[in-house]
Amino acid sequence: MNAMTFLRGFFLALLLTAAASGTSVLAEEAPLKFGIMPFNSTLALIKTHQPLTAYLEKRLGRRVVVYTSADYFTFVNQLLDGQFDVAIAGPHFGSMAAERGAKVLFRYRADLQPVVVVRAGSGIRTLDDLHGKRIGLSSRLSISSIGGVKWLQDNGFQLDRDYRLFERATHGAAIAGVAVGDLDAALTTHTPLKQIPEDIRAKISILPLDIHVPHLMTLADARLSAAEVARIRAALRDFQGTPEGQAFFSETGYLGYAEVSPADMKALQPFVELTLQMMRLGR
């Protein structure tokens, strides 16, 4: 895992928490490798998921080591290579991993809808006004980017002819680029919009896209035994009923866990195909 960022501070915090609570950290069983897609900064990922990973460590009686990756391209390749025991991944990545035998445990209950952010007063009032514009995104492989690009393709827009894409480090950076005029628009979702500063939010407007996809999925790697998967699945299911879990789902807007249906997986197929195209373009 040379390309992976190991969150040492978070791991040490979990050990200290376990020691303080009297929970023994089992040395006999290998740590659970928990991969989180880099949809936010490392510090934000640590803060957001600490209640979940601390709960899993206590419930499973097993150390949980959290990993993230430098970018989406690295993450999806590590996911498909089986480098995580459990992972939180975009639904398109989850579908790709499931095709290789990964077990989809849950998706978040909330609906995921890509949106276009424009600068207030910019004159961009409809999606047709995006012709010839500079469009920012956090990564061309994020589901908001894939969904937005699919909408553009379905409506006759051709990349590098009708619009140009510019990648930024995070959703927040792409939105800020719109606010200050460096970009004409940005592709994102409603969740990052809740997390940006108020002064940035006051300078933007939102154009919704008529695209809805399943939210982030939690998966177990194919090499885990059926008993291990059942234990992890039960722990996740019970987490949402705890005070920590209720706070986690309220603060993130994820609402809870939901089963992934065959209809969910079928609906994702066009997005998976576009993801593979975007991966080839990014190489």
Which labels suit this protein?
D-Maltodextrin-Binding Protein, domain 2, 283 residues, 5-stranded mixed beta sheet, disordered N terminus, 7-stranded mixed beta sheet, 20% strand, alpha/beta
Tell me the helix content.
Answer: 40-55%
Mean pLDDT: 88
Number of spatially distinct domains = 2
Helix vs. strand class: alpha/beta
**How many E strands?**
12
Spatial ordering of strands, largest sheet? 1-3-2-4-11-5-12
- For the record, what CATH class of the largest domain applies? Alpha Beta
> What's the architecture of the largest domain in CATH terms?
3-Layer(aba) Sandwich
Beta-strand share of residues: 15-25%
CATH superfamily membership of the largest domain: Periplasmic binding protein-like II
Can you tell me about this structure?
- This protein has 283 residues and is of the alpha/beta class.
- The protein has two domains: 4-111 and 214-281, Periplasmic binding protein-like II (D-Maltodextrin-Binding Protein, domain 2, 3-Layer(aba) Sandwich), CATH 3.40.190.10; 114-208, Periplasmic binding protein-like II (D-Maltodextrin-Binding Protein, domain 2), CATH 3.40.190.10.
- Helix content is 44%, strand content 20%.
- It is built from eleven helices and twelve strands.
- The chain has helices spanning 8-21, 42-60, 72-80, 91-99, 143-154, 171-179, 190-193, 198-201, 226-239, 243-252, 262-281; strands at 4-6, 32-36, 64-69, 86-89, 103-108, 114-119, 133-137, 163-167, 185-189, 204-208, 217-220, 257-258.
- Strands 1-3-2-4-11-5-12 form a seven-stranded mixed beta sheet.
- α1 (8-21) runs parallel beside α2 (42-60) and α4 crosses α11.
- The two termini are 20 Å apart.
- The model is unreliable at 2-27 (pLDDT under 50).
